[in-house]
Amino acid sequence: WPYCQKRCSYCNFNKYIPRGLDEASMRSCLTQEARTLIQLSQVHRISSVFFGGGTPSLASPQTIAAVLETISRCAHLAADASRLAEFRASGINRLSIGIQSLDDAELILLGRDHTAHEALGTLEEAKKLFPGRTSIDLIFGLPGQSVASWTKGLEELLQQCDDHVSLYQLTLERGTSLFRQVQQGSVPAPKQEVVAEMYEVAREMLRDTGYRQYEVSNFARNGALSAHNLSYWQGSQYIGIGPGAHGRFVPRAHGENLREARIQTLEPDSWMKEVQAFGHGTRKRAAQGELEVVSVSQYLQWVSPLLPHQHWLQFAPSLSLWDVFGTSVEVKELEDQGLLLLDNRGLRCSWKGLAVLDSLLLTLLNQLQQSWEDR
């Protein structure tokens, strides 16, 4: 759902302020594109449906219900699928709330249109509707933010949140209001050593509160992992529907066997015209070679703590993890530093390694490419 009520100062997502929105036409196009792309993929079972944006809660429950009903008619939709009082009745069974901060001054800096008090009220209502299935998003590393203020807000939230927490380091995206403010010196740039300390403090606080870190940014307790996120990390096919959506699937209805990366037209009005004319609004499509599929799949898997041998072999049956990484001097150095471990379970990051995973990925992906070329 590409629409927002206002633009947050840090966000460079594909989003639009609605002016004279015809939701019935948007709903019709969303359901049409869902039918077209599911038929093209010849996928018979959908494990999860995720509504993103923009601000997906601005869509009416009727639109959410129409999309879910269309998908369930085109493919089997698992009863426990993770879908976004009225939304629950539409079929939504998991909710993610963008609280971002409990400091009102920080919320103003971020351009949010809610207060900390309002965010906590929404959280309480969501927990009543979706007990055990309400996630919160938090941003750290804001200009002027201290470790003490971050810790204080996180402590308060951990007393009230549900079983899933996502932590995101602020990225100053070119073209956003906040990027310009930092460039002009009107707000201070975040200090990287302070940001790193915030992340480490948060990881320890979440661990001590019973949360398990299962991805770089995501923490869960009581088994409340996001099934939809896990499907990405496991390299599953996914279909993107709506303006600016992206997907990766094999278009089997066209007789293809290679997975394609597909991007839908960004601008909503143009996208709707294309859907009405062609049944979908795919703007770009590119076939992915075997190495690219393996690289993408394993990159995604590496953002979780463990890459099992059996999962690796689904994508690269001709090369084992031992073949690729077992004789690498660079990987051995990372093992010696206590950052990685390759054993009979698979390749995995240590607690220490998860904190610096981005730097590890470059070594791992370079080693994968070299082994692929040498085979």
From TrEMBL:
Protein name: Radical S-adenosyl methionine domain-containing protein
InterPro entries per the UniProt record, alphabetical: Aldolase_TIM, Coproporphyrinogen-III_oxidase, Elp3/MiaA/NifB-like_rSAM, HemN_C, HemW-like, rSAM, rSAM_sf
One GO CC term on file: mitochondrion
Domain called Radical SAM core: residue spans: 1-212
Role of this protein: May be a heme chaperone, appears to bind heme. Homologous bacterial proteins do not have oxygen-independent coproporphyrinogen-III oxidase activity. Binds 1 [4Fe-4S] cluster. The cluster is coordinated with 3 cysteines and an exchangeable S-adenosyl-L-methionine.
Compartments where found: Mitochondrion
NCBIfam families named among the record's database cross-references: hemN_rel
Any GO BP annotation: porphyrin-containing compound biosynthetic process
Top-rank taxon, per record: Eukaryota
SMART domains registered for this protein in UniProt: Elp3
A Pfam family it matches: Radical_SAM
PROSITE patterns: RADICAL_SAM
Claim: Heme is one of the keywords in the record: yes
GO molecular function, one term: heme binding
Broad class of the protein's primary localization: mitochondrion
Family: Belongs to the anaerobic coproporphyrinogen-III oxidase family. HemW subfamily.
Gene from which this protein is expressed: RSAD1
Assigned keywords, A-Z: 4Fe-4S, Chaperone, Heme, Iron, Iron-sulfur, Metal-binding, Mitochondrion, S-adenosyl-L-methionine, Transit peptide
